């Protein structure tokens, strides 16, 4: 993943409503949700949410698919995992770290 893509994704997530919407899409999994369902769950107007979903889509974190009269939004798990991989690529200088490593602490 290139640096500009990472910056775009992090910028998109650096807004509370977009972060909440993205987390909701991650939680529901590959089935995705319609904008009205997301808006209802977050308690925001649908037109406000539409702007934020567009930003997440532009950043590559969310995909959309038209199904009949509805648009289904889904978290792009491959992109999310690539972003997480980029952020942790050099964690602890390549040493084993994290909760699974016995007694290891992450710097």
UniProtKB/TrEMBL annotation:
Keywords: DNA-binding, Transcription, Transcription regulation
Lineage: Bacteria, Pseudomonadati, Pseudomonadota, Betaproteobacteria, Burkholderiales
One Gene Ontology term of the molecular function aspect: DNA binding
Protein name as annotated: ArsR family transcriptional regulator
Keyword Transcription regulation on entry: yes
CDD domains the record matches: HTH_ARSR
Limits of the HTH arsR-type domain: 1-95
SMART domains per record: HTH_ARSR
PANTHER family: ARSENICAL RESISTANCE OPERON REPRESSOR ARSR-RELATED
InterPro entries, per the entry: ArsR-like_HTH, HTH_ArsR_DNA-bd_dom, Metal_resp_trans_reg, WH-like_DNA-bd_sf, WH_DNA-bd_sf
Highest taxon in the source lineage: Bacteria
Chain segments annotated as transmembrane: none
